[in-house]
Amino acid sequence: QIEAAIHYLFWPKIFWDFFTKGLNWTLHPFPLIQLLNFGFSIILIAWEWPIDFLAGTRVHQSLQARLIVIPFAGLIVALIYQGTDVALYYFIGEGVYYWAYVTGETIPIVPWTLNESSAFLAATA
Q1: What Cα–Cα distance (Å) separates residue 63 from each residue in 23, 52, 59, 108?
Q2: I need a surface site. Which of 10, 21, 41, 86 has the fewest CB within 10 A?
Q3: CA 14 to CA 64: how far, in whole Å?
Q4: What's the whole-number mean pLDDT along residues 95-120?
Q5: Which residues, including other chains, have CB under 8 Å from residue 105's CB and lie 6 or more apart?
């Protein structure tokens, strides 16, 4: 998504512009969609690969927050021509996060470790 946002700064093209020119106001004079895409990509990278001050916080561990933010990021990136495949990945990721939420999975406090209360650990014990 970062690459699509940067690419979009130089070659702006709304994916849905063959239907309507109604979204052209997001391109000129201020690059609104480009900046939103770049911002969402930085936020989602910070969630997936957290730096020390973010790891273990309630925001980092919240599946509900991810279930709310990822559809908005997917919608914004689906608007640009360069980000259609990223939107598909967000759609798949949203399904996986929903599955994890429904089955009771949790995100561990320490990144790249397993929770002691994990269903996997309970099943293998």
Answers
A1: 31, 19, 9, 11
A2: 10
A3: 30
A4: 77
A5: 63, 118, 119
